[in-house]
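### Sample
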Amino acid sequence: MEGVSEPVDVVLIGGGVMSATLGSLLQQLEPDWSITILEALPEVAQESSNPWNNAGTGHSALCELNYTPEKNGQIEIAQAVKVNEQFQVSRQYWSHLVDAGLLPEPTRFINPVPHLSFVWGESNVEYLRRRYEALKDHPLFPGLEFTEDPRVIREWAPLLIPGRKKSEKIAATRIVGGSDVDFGALTENLVDGLVARGASLAVERKVTGLKRLKDGTWRITGRHVVGNTPFELTARFVFVGAGGAALHLLQKSGIREIRGYGGFPISGQFLRTDKPEVVARHQGKVYGKASVGAPPMSVPHLDTRVVDGQASLLFGPYAGWTPKFLKTGSWLDLFASIRWHNLGTMVGAGLKNLDLVWYLVTEVLASRKKQHEVLQQFAPTAQQDDWYRITAGQRVQIMKRGADGKAVIQFGTEVVAGGEGTIAGLLGASPGASTAVPIMLDVLATCFPDRIEGWKPELTRMIPSYGTKLSDAPKKAASELAGTAKTLGLAV
């Protein structure tokens, strides 16, 4: 690889689900293009795409209450519909790959798991009832159920009820058509397919420099993690899908579009149990409401996870903080990201979010007992000895100037492209992996405007709703949801 003078058509920096998805799309659209994947770790999908490092296991807004905020007495569903639309695009593409034999048996990466919302307290029960009324007839939320009956909730999710006071007001919604996605397995399968059809994968290659040359190509420099010897190659197009490290690399590229951006790292922990008798009593992803002052990504949830065919339960997240931008990153990552053009943004965003800083401080100082008490708000009879802590992956939230010019912390994902479309990178976090396909379609449209129209027939073949909204066509939505569910082995 290092000795090749001819530029590679596409270099993907980072071996996560975003790079794997973009590579998969491009390989089908332009099968003659050369593709190289550079990964700093010994294997792909070991940072945010690893199933134990992320909570994005099928974010489709079926149960995540932060996507349906209450404002001025109204339940706003626009964000929930948008996220669901995006997830359906991902499902359609995965279904196409399965049908085409480009992905293996779906149970290797996706399994049916009902999605539930669960709340307690009179005001929260009323909120959930109104959320149900707002969504129950929407074509992307078919079969949404609501109940305040503890007996029904116990049937849906047995761990939620025993030990709870009978006088407590509770409510839940459920959609049986939810799923659990192992994005680590999905990424590995996508990369295996890329390599089998001619792409190159180079692991233990840490990229340290990006420079645009006079002919418009990019010189990518770095070092071998083992041996510390340098490497260099050139590329016509570069995608930086390096998770938290994307900010540093885009800064190194010198593109003007990255100016003013900063990153705020948030780490986290989960409680996990693999005890069969406990796991058997819970089948679902159950989301509650976030604590006051908590960031949206910290909404508590009790999840069934299926990894390598083995079911476990995961509860959290418990937020934490380190200055690292990756789980395997450096303690200097945050400080190394400071530039003259983003210092004001970072300071301003920090001062505007002191409640978030205080929340993180209290979370970091929380004892193991305190963490278990939070779990018992969901599962009152949970025994501390049945659960153990695991450390999740790092999330780097975007700090930028908003439309009003004021500094903000943005909880979401954002594509930053420059160099006349020759380089792009992804910043941010949730909903992340679940919406990888539509995000990468945005990259294609942004970076290849002269080709996207010619690609449209093939993109529509792979993703039938491409360029349209399923929410605008109820019959088509019902057909596509049923079709992808059948292909992927999910409930309708």
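The domain at 8-488 is CATH 3.50.50.60 (FAD/NAD(P)-binding domain). This sample (Probable malate:quinone oxidoreductase) is used throughout the tutorial notebook.
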